[in-house]
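User: Hey, quick favor. My workstation is busy. Could you predict this chain's structure for me?
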Amino acid sequence: MAVAMYPWLVLGGSMFGVLFLSYVVYHYFADPQESYVLATVAVVLSLTVSILCTLLIPVDIYVISEGSIKSESLHLTISQDLVRNAYLALFASLLFLAFIVVPHAYFYGEERGSGDFDMKADRRSCWGAFRHTSLFVAFVLFLMVVGLNFRPGHTASLDKAWVSQEEASRWVSDLFDSQHGGLNAVSFSIACLTLLGVGGWVFYTAYGMAAMPFAWLRGKQSASEQRMGLEQSIASIREKYRAIQARYPSREDGSPDLSRMKAVDRKELNRLQRDYKSMVQRNYKLQEYEEKAGMVIPRLLQFLVPFRWAIGVTMMSISLLVVVSLLLTLIDRLVHSDCGWSCGYTLKERRIYNPADEIFLYLSHVFPLDFMVMGIIVLYIWIASVFGIVCLGIRFLCFNVYQLRTRKSMPQALLVLCNVMSYILLALCMALLTIAPNYTAFGSQTVKNADGTPGRCSLDRRDSMSPCRVSVISAFFTRIARQSLCRCFP
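Assistant: No problem, here it is.
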């Protein structure tokens, strides 16, 4: 019983940690004067659901590798069908949040304006937000209709639907894909969001994974240390200012008589005044930062400063692991794929060594080590993406739309952030199939070779006599790729 409950405890603890992380991120960036409950709920739920989509992958791998997870106390069995339904529920929830809840919260914030407001939503703001959100609802409905009507396998003709009631029922059943529970409509919509996520992955995540390790390795002084140095500079400027003033007589009011000063000294005084003003402004900003140091994230960062070299090297190692694994898999597919572009460069069996794949396959024998490593990589990529967005700002083409600042960001900026992060994490789900292809597809399953020795599962060995099962996430995104190719090249 304890063994059966162990995965549940890991999953439950991960969900609670993700909820807490999402709330901390919102609380860290949001302006408390402008924050409202609807934005908080939308951001926390959207970030949580998107991260859970990636953290469900190790559970999916565990089920196909070790079999169903049974809990006698809860009378529940986590089978592959249940995992498939969980993916479908999470992806449907992500669509609902991305196209309805988040836009409604965004437009509600725009309608309510700025200033001090009560927590209760007024009717005018809600109605205006619903009116604007209807455009997003129409868009997602359009995506679902396109996914249902133009999917491969939809062959029922509308002309036959008028022949009899039975033909009409068959046409409606085929149109709404009742056999697959609407999976085609959801998969096409998720494919569109993943395409947007690839853009965010290239622009924000790539920058964050490259720049963040160097930021930790380079390091910087704490706010108190910067203030100490700044106050010494301010004191030095005052001494220089007084030394120049002492050379010349003052007026009756005590101010320096500039008419008797040399031109060189007047220029020096003006420069010192400019430097003094800029340093005082910088000192005020550092004082504000020190006041915010009581928050969770600044305290955590301050605690980790002594270990910045170890953290920077670890981050650099993870970035290199991800990049090298992606590159090796892409080269393997490009060189060894039998069907080429016609099947999306599908690889039946991996032929080039992949370090990330080997690490995950080795750790998958001891649950939850692979779950923990997967969580670390997902968390690192998530933090790197946020780092990239904070550094580069939320942009549309070349225009900077929102800039994220600690405790000064508008809730609307965070709502846009959570949508961008949702798309990026969907792209991460797809990228994991390239980073660790064998692990995400078959887990630790093995088959017997012709000589009786155990071998790893692959598409080339997955026949009727083989016990290998494909993971839900691998089948889902492979289905998306094949449907896209069938639409483009019928």
